């Protein structure tokens, strides 16, 4: 699946989003490259979630163009749109699981919708997806209301991964998780990226996640986006970016990451 | 090499079996592959080699099928070897292998599909109903305790909240209650006159008696109560339920506010006070509708109407006018209690708010009608 690493898989050009008189994005350009993990950060209200929702077509921009897999999102027919939806998965902030279905049934929804599959095979696929995201065995038969926030997130990820998408969109995947679970989530995303060749578009506030698994970082400042590697961001002298990465929390996360980098070869996946 | 369809070819050799997998092992082709793998005759005690070099593309679904085949073969006492799998796929296989320890969620047959299950379900529902009744009774007791507590400390009564609730449940309901009662008056006058006319000898004039007894004793208060159950009872459940979802009720408790005192009592008192007033207004509007209809369609003049109305109210029972009003505060309490009770029953999910709101309306209307029947029996024993 990673036949052409590095080619842009999502292209956003000249994006303008406005709510009432408030402009959120003004002529914003962004490329997401195939096989990378792109972390999107920005202050509260800087339009991170709006950007994500625009790329997945839940929000119609005032102006601008969004291309996914080289096809203009806004000009698609319904059929093309369905084909596209098979190739991406979205994890919403609180999992957004369907509350009337069990976790296993939630994971089977996209399978049922897009593939004609025997029930038994769907059950098997749902079961190993539950295992892959690190949920305990009995989770499949439970309802979302019986799960904790972290488990709902994992179950949401399992549903997002049900069709083996090429891109996953994650909206604050580690927010509200304890540090151990957040670390396990990072490890999980990294493993999935390695084995499935996933492209990950991730909105996050978690500096540890940002440093641990993101290949590139996109910072939303001044209604535009600045993209670069972690090193570039550390050298950027924009005041917001500087205080974000060089504030006390940024520095602490950076140091712990530097410590881990030296023994990355021996790092093992933490399971929650 | 890149053959589009996924295939699996079986080749027999003495004492061993070679399965050759080629093509695309993806989630799109998984259904077809699954069917073919299930048809496969599983050998026993052989050396099985899965030649996987021809797999051009593979995702987790394909990897799962490979693994499942391997596991099933191994369970049949075979020695299995997956060979020549592209190195880029092996992390994928490891990932799935790690996840595959989880057994598929069972799909138990719903118990109510059997006779015993059906009976058990009836029993369960009955026990649930009894438990519910007890719980509502408990809530009623709690509210009574709080009310008597407040009676001893009247300064703690939240007058502002009560007045606000009275505006929401009473004043704002005036248009709908008035309109519907007016229409009911028209309908009864018209239907009643139609029937009474058959008797001849000017029996139409008894339409006024029908209106007076029907609206003042029963329909005025019943219509108002049903509108209030739909309008205010549901609003109580939804408001309190949403607060429950947002943990606002818990927050209240930690601050030292009693949710019953803060939320339930003002709503209860508001409905207790507004429902009689609304009933009075509904009675008036209903009689007005009947009066206009009698005048327009039956040639009963307005003075005639009022003279007849006066005698109708004294002829049968001096209580006719009061009976409807007497029932109103009881109905109001039922609606408010059920609305608030169901609101407090909401679990921490948005779905339960909707479910319990519906339930609260149905339950309130049901109990209002049950209470009305009880009143009828009671009044007939008292002979009024």
Describe the structure.
The complex is a heterodimer of chains A (272) and B (384). With 272 residues, chain A is of the alpha/beta class. In chain A, the strands form 2 sheets. Chain A has a 6-stranded mixed sheet with strand order 6-7-8-3-9-10. A 4-stranded antiparallel sheet of chain A has the order 2-1-4-5, covered by helices on one side. In chain A, helix 3 packs across helix 4, helix 6 packs parallel to helix 7 and helix 7 runs parallel beside helix 10. Chain A is 40% helix and 23% strand. In chain A, strand 7, helix 6 and strand 8 form a beta-alpha-beta unit. Chain A has a single domain, classed as Rossmann fold, CATH 3.40.50. Chain B is of the alpha/beta class and 384 residues long. Chain B folds into 3 domains: 93 residues, Transcription Regulator spoIIAA; 37 residues; 226 residues, no CATH class. Chain B has a 4-stranded mixed sheet, with helices on one face. In chain B, strand 1 and strand 2 form a beta hairpin. In chain B, helix 4 crosses helix 9, helix 6 runs parallel beside helix 9 and helix 7 runs antiparallel to helix 12. The longest helix of chain B has 40 residues. Chain B is elongated. Chain B starts with 6 loop residues before the first strand and ends with a helix. The model of chain B has no long low-confidence stretch (mean pLDDT 87). The chains are: A alpha/beta (272), B alpha/beta (384).
Q: Which helices and strands appear, and what pairs or packs with what?
A:
The complex is a heterodimer of chains A (272) and B (384).
Chain A: E1 8-19, E2 22-33, E3 37-42, H1 48-55, E4 63-68, E5 71-72, H2 78-85, E6 88-91, H3 103-114, H4 119-132, H5 149-160, E7 167-171, H6 179-196, E8 199-203, H7 207-213, E9 216-221, E10 224-228, H8 230-235, H9 239-246, H10 248-262
Parallel strand pairs in A: 3-8, 3-9, 6-7, 7-8
Antiparallel strand pairs in A: 1-2, 1-4, 4-5, 9-10
Helix pairs in contact in A: 3-4, 3-5, 4-5, 6-7, 7-10, 9-10
Chain B: E1 7-13, E2 16-25, H1 30-39, E3 47-58, H2 60-75, E4 79-83, H3 90-99, H4 115-152, H5 159-169, H6 174-196, H7 207-245, H8 248-255, H9 259-298, H10 302-315, H11 320-345, H12 350-382
Parallel strand pairs in B: 2-3, 3-4
Antiparallel strand pairs in B: 1-2
Helix pairs in contact in B: 1-2, 2-3, 4-9, 5-9, 6-7, 6-9, 7-9, 7-10, 7-11, 7-12, 9-11, 11-12
